[in-house]
Every structure is written in C-alpha cells, then in structure tokens.
C-alpha cells in the first residue's frame, strides 16, 4: 500500500495536532520520498560550520536536529509496527534530550547522518507496503496514550516538516 488517509482526531494524542496540521493530501510514499529530496537540497547549500552550530546557545546543532528526527522516526516506526502486529503491551515514551546528548551526533559526519535518514525512510516505505489498510487502525498505547499505526506513520512526515522549517528559518 502506497497511499492511505490521514488519521482522525481521537486516533492520537492532541499533542500531535501541530505536526499533522502541516500535512495535506494522501500520497504518503511520494511525500516521504519528496522529503528526502527537500533535505538533500537544503544540506547541499550548507557549510560544515553550519552543521555544527546551534542557532542559539542551548539549542541543538543541525546535525543534532537531523539525528533527533532519525531517532524519532525509528521510534514511531517501531511503535507502528508493534501495534499493526497486534501488540497489547503499553510502550514507553522517550525523552528526546538525553537521546540527543548520548548519541553524540556532532561526532558523526553530516553525510553519514543523511545516509542514515535515507535508509530509515526506505525501511519505513517497505514496511508500510507490507501492511493492509485495517492494520493501520489497530489501537495501541504509547507513552500512556492510545494511538494507531496510521497516526504514527503520518506524524513522521509532519514532525519532519516542523524541523525542516526550523532548520530553514532559524539556522
């Protein structure tokens, strides 16, 4: 399956409304692929110094932002897989700041981070192509709240847009 509709309100915690409000249309796999090109276009114009400089003291560097996006996508994909397969156990939340701190993204080249992002996106697309429409609406619990795989998978490109806009406008 390449395309599927956005989730309905109530299929996810209200916290994710912002990310989902950034989306339109239902050509999911094309959106995921287009975002790879968007990131590549932005990164191709930037210097090594840009990748390692936060826009403000205490904020992440662009490499840390990308690393955060990759980590979040892996976690959302894992949650979506679990719930699509009928997992009934509650899955934990995650605190993004320790993840970024412990990942040491500053020591990883921007080229490798971009390759990792592309690989994660390809894995996401192939997973989604194995799922049936009804699997997208199974309800699981993550971070103490009910959520569907459909919502998790759509949050991924919305979260990316949110951070891409920050990279474009603040750095």
TrEMBL record:
Domain of life: Bacteria
Entry protein name: DinB family protein
InterPro entries referenced in this protein's UniProt entry, alphabetically: DinB-like, DinB/YfiT-like
Domain DinB-like positions: 34-166
SUPFAM superfamilies: DinB/YfiT-like putative metalloenzymes (SSF109854)
